[in-house]
Structures are given as C-alpha cells and as structure tokens.
Specification:
The chain has about 210 residues and is mainly alpha-helical. It has helices spanning about 10-35, 35-45, 45-55, 55-80, 85-100, 105-115, 120-150, 155-170, 175-180, 190-205. It contains ten helices and no strands.
Length: about 210
C-alpha cells in the first residue's frame, strides 16, 4: 500500500481530505443543509469513497467534531510543560488558551455543537466533558503544581481555574460567537492574557513573609 513522505497511506490521506472538507461544509451550511456530495467534491473523492469511510452524515459529523477538538486542544495540553515561575507558566497556558478561542475553526465548532445540541445531545455532552478534561484539566494540573511549590494558595483549584479561563474566554470566545468566527479582539492576546494572569496572581499568589 502506497504511503506518503509522512508515512500516511492513500486511505489515510483521503480520510484527512474528507474531514477537512466536511469541516468547511458543516461550518458554512450547518448540519441540516450540508450535503455528502458537497463534502466529497471538496475532498476530491467520489461519494462511494466517502461512504466507505463514513456510513452516513451523522457519523461524519461526530468524527469532525471529535477530530477538531483533539487537534485544537493539543497546544493547550502542551503548555503544561512550560518552565518558569507562576507568571510564566500561567501566561504560557493563557496564550495557548486564547489562541485556541481566537481561531475560526474553534469558534465554528462551538457554534455547530450549540446549534445541533438537540439533534446530538450525547455528542454535545461529550464535547463539553472532553473540553473540561483537555482544557480545564491542563490548567488544574498547573495550578496544583504551583500550589505544591508554594507559589500560590487557592481555596478550591477548580474555582480558581474557572476564574482565569473566564477572563480569557470573555475577551476571545464570546466575541467570536457574537461578532463572527473571524472577529479578533481590539486588544492584543498578549495584553489580554497578561491582564488575566495579573488579576489571578493578585488574588492567589503567596506573598513573601517579612523577615
């Protein structure tokens, strides 16, 4: 079986093209109006090939959402490995998180899940839980490590994580959901994240004791 320079088989490449095309079609048309023929045409494959990979539109939709979330969350997870003090580590997470919410793909995926919640309740619940684990779980791990190092003190780690995430989401995701997938904040992401981290540390950083 032929493989690419990246080690992908022809079947794997076709599957990737199908998911890329489906993501565009679902975002543009919504689930109800998206056609499998449109997806196949955009992917450069026959409808027979498309159905060989995905038996139906609902199956394709589920995989698109799952695949998109997995890809988008990767950099956020990687931010947990950042070095430095509390400010540096929280800033690394915050930038990855802000960039996650400022991409058109992230926003269109959120819109799709919200719009199709009644049709796909289990998928919506899975999306919410996966986001909580992948995104919130990464920040919780950072907060707990900083607390173990004595840099911060939080009464409840999940509350503290939600506060930092909320400050970033308000300026990034909420804007996109209201103003459109391509809309970007007036303030730079660097400024938004610095302000959020400063506010967080003003509340939770452990002050050095006077000698």
């Amino acid at each position: 079986m032929a493989t690419s320079a990246l080690g992908e088989t022809r079947s794997e490449r076709k599957r990737k093209h199908i998911l890329t095309s489906a993501r565009v079609v679902f975002a543009r048309e919504g689930f109800a109006h998206a056609g499998m023929e449109q997806v196949a045409r955009g992917a450069g494959v026959s409808t027979a090939t498309l159905y060989a990979h995905f038996p139906g539109k609902a199956d394709l939709f589920r995989v698109v959402i799952e695949d998109t979330l997995a890809g988008m969350a990767a950099r956020v997870r990687q931010s947990a490995g950042a070095d430095g003090d509390a400010r540096a580590r929280l800033f690394a997470f915050g930038m990855a998180y802000a960039e996650f919410y400022c991409t058109a793909t992230s926003r269109s995926t959120f819109r799709l899940v919200i719009a199709e919640r009644r049709r796909f309740p289990q998928l919506a619940n899975h999306f919410q839980e996966r986001g909580r684990v992948e995104l919130g779980g990464t920040l919780l791990a950072i907060i707990r490590a900083l607390e173990a190092d004595g840099e911060i003190a939080v009464p409840k780690a999940s509350w503290a994580a939600g506060q930092l995430q909320g400050m970033i989401e308000h300026a990034t995701l909420l804007l996109g959901l209201i103003a459109g997938d391509e809309a970007q904040p007036v303030r730079s992401l660097d400024t938004i994240v610095h302000d959020a981290v400063d506010t967080f540390l003003a509340r939770y950083r452990v002050r050095e004791r006077a000698a």
